[in-house]
Predict the structure.
Amino acid sequence: MSSSFKRSNPTESMEAQSEELEQALSRGPFLAQADCMIEPGARTTNILQMAWTVRCKRSCETIFMRLPELLASGERLTKDLRRLREDGQLGACWREYIRDASERAILVIDLLRESGDLFLEHEAAGCPTVLFYEYETIMDGRDLPVKSNYRLLRIIPTQDVAVDNARARPFVIIPPRAGHTAGVGVHAPDSQVGVALREGHPVYLVDFRRKPEQNQHLSYVAYAEAAFVREVARRHPRAPLPVVVGNCQAGWATLVMAATNPDLTGPIVINGSPVTAVSGNLGDSTFRYVAGIFGGVWIPMLLCDLGKGMFDGAHLIHNFQLLNPERQFLKYAGLFRDVDKERESFLATEKWWSSFCLLHENEICWILENLFIGNRLGKNKAYLGSERQHVDLKQIRAPIVLFASHGDNVTPPQQALNWITDMYDSEEEIRARGQRIVYMVHDDIGHLGIFVSSRVVNREFRQVATTLESIEALMPGLYEMRVKDVEEHDGRKSFNVELVERHFKDIYALNDNYRDEFPFEAVDRTSELHAQIYHTIVRPFVRAAVTTFTAEAGRSVHPERLSRSLISSRNPLLSGFKVISPQVRQSRATARVDNPFLFAEALYVQHIAQAIIFWRELRDMVYELMFHSVWNSPLQRYFGSRREVVPRQMTLEELRLRPDVQAALKMIATGGFIEAVIRMMALLVSDRGAIRRDRLDRWSRVLTQNEPFRSVRSERLTSITRQQTIIATLEREQAINTLPLLLGDSEERRRAYLVACYVPGRIAEMSPSTIDLLLRFAQVLEQPPITGNVTENPLGGNGG
């Protein structure tokens, strides 16, 4: 009766229904889902606050650090001008400066006109490769079964360089195809090519034409590069396998080629390559946010349709220059200030810099979907050839050398190195797979400087090039290469190279506490939806409206091309500068160095550059805050959560269960002299954690020059090294105790023990743990411990 009354009473009925609904909500999933949103929302707020704080702090520090210098410079300028006015020289200095600046302006305009003419001439010729060295074509991708626009060139050394074509390891250098045509780092004598040639190595360059072949895919490029490396190896049968050097975009492309052809190459050197392009720290790495802010892959699809299936590399170069606009300003300001000396170098650099390549839609979309948006390559989810060929970077067997820089805001160290911790479960897995990964992080060099700067090429790259033989002798693991300057007594400078064993925590230390890659999962999913909508609704109309003529016309009016075409001899307003500039050079009157107006000019340039930097910092802050506000919200995280991968580190027990690890551990008491010596070296490396180059060189000579190692094929030595590294890592005590079982007689034990003492060097340079481990070897092998330095190679040859 009571319940019937409540249902018949509207007020009571509404209260009862409200009470029931409240109870249902408290018991149902709504409140739980709201609670789940609170933590991500708080994390997003924290990230926004941290990004705002970091960027504001850096901007303020930049301003206040430069402010005293600028004020002091202004005060100095005021004093100089006041002194000149008192001496009556102000007018003369002003007239001198005006004439000098006017002449420089004429010379700069004419130089830009000449540069524009070179650009038009180079474009008309199809943007041929710009190289400092002469070369010959060895292979052409057009002649392969799978056609591509790539070629293999052999660099012809100059007459003053001696190259050992018979036994020296050949170098295969792959320039980036990231907007420019081939030639970056090869258009000067102090380049990667020059260093390798001066060290006596044959050098080959993987070149590419401006325009890709019809319907070209990145799998075609990987096929061509693999064919080129095979040809280089065939041409040098008595030399070790070629080392492949990949710069920027060519770095991850080299990893793709090596992963799909794991037994093809020798060491791989990767310079400034964004393998995990979505990584970075808050307050930095603005470049990674572009795809999320501007809509994903559908925009390049539109640009490809407007270009008749071709993506213009000038877009990439334009975005690259906008990343640091102050450098573009300083480039031309420096040219204006020193036009008398910079003419030849400017024309040589500008000829390559203004040489733009084209990419097929298949290529640019693969790059965006698998690196810059989807991050599939770094997560081991990338495929080549229409999902038929899995690109598994773990399959690479050759040593990998990675070079990054804190001063690189295009490819910061996080983007160059985070794939290691994302791909592998632990450093133990790297050892178990027999892989050797060496990384090097520079303090301040910029992106192009990593593979173009003569200072870096002659220091870091030269040390890498001359250490590759020793790196191949490394025990498997993760290492950092450190190059230190050593001042000699005669004033000359040499370099000391040390390889330090590292752990995943050392790579984590390069990141901040916000691994903020998960918003890109939502960006990737949204990008796919936008691409599908564009492909279905918009693309048919765009393709119907575009012709070959409109595509070429669109490329010709791109700002990067148009700005050069307008400042060329085609512009009638500039015709007079071609006549007057030689006269100006003949009657050139430069201002004195102490002219205060030159100082005022330099001060003006600094002020403008600082203003551009401040604008750039403000723009980057807006980009970052906008990105995280949109894509780092709880709803967007839920939207992309189905693609989010939560990594879990493999335990040692799980690692032991791997079939290959089980097979290696079963061989702990099996083997001979070679296995015993390699095992002791693995134990010494894991104990000390750092290897100087002289020690590594001694070990390399033992492996390559002394019996019984010299007679063993390199593949077999690599297999033994991997096996003994697994044993030394997972069963350390048993690995030591079973050493006598590998060495049959006392003489073998004595020789093996002496080799273990010879490689570390002098006793005074050994760590206490190394000395203790050598004493343990002596005890187990029943050998008298050494009391002096072992400077002579126990297996023959000279000591090191």
About this structure: The longest helix spans residues 29-87. Residues 1-88+592-650 form one domain. The longest strand covers residues 477-487. The CA atoms of residues 69 and 534 lie 53 Å apart.
